[in-house]
């Protein structure tokens, strides 16, 4: 690991994640608490969100319309 790399590269502090995504820190905490919730790491007393895994988690939550359902 070079001097410019950090063990936390690719992670973001939960408060910054919430600010960037325009959600409250409490909403982020609720997402973490869900079954199959938002992935996170607790390190040094802080919560970190792995950015790529958070993107994957969000992709897995995409909802698609039921094609069999008829529009009234």
What topology, given as strand order, has the largest sheet?
1-3-2
Main structural class? alpha+beta
**Which spans of ≥5 residues are poorly predicted at pLDDT below 50?**
none
Tally of contiguous helical segments = 3
Report the principal-axis shape.
Answer: elongated
How would you sum up the major sheet? 3 strands, antiparallel
Residues in β-strands, percent: 15-25%
Q: What helical percentage do the residues reach? A: 25-40%
In angstroms, what separates the terminal alpha carbons? Answer: 60 Å
Roughly how many Å is the radius of gyration?
16 Å
- Helix-strand sequence: EHHEEH
Average pLDDT figure: 91
User: How many individual β-strands?
Assistant: 3
Description:
With 72 residues, this protein is an alpha+beta fold. The chain contains three helices and three strands. Strand 2 and strand 3 form a beta hairpin. The chain is elongated. The termini are far apart.
List its salient traits.
single chain, 72 residues, alpha+beta, three-stranded antiparallel beta sheet
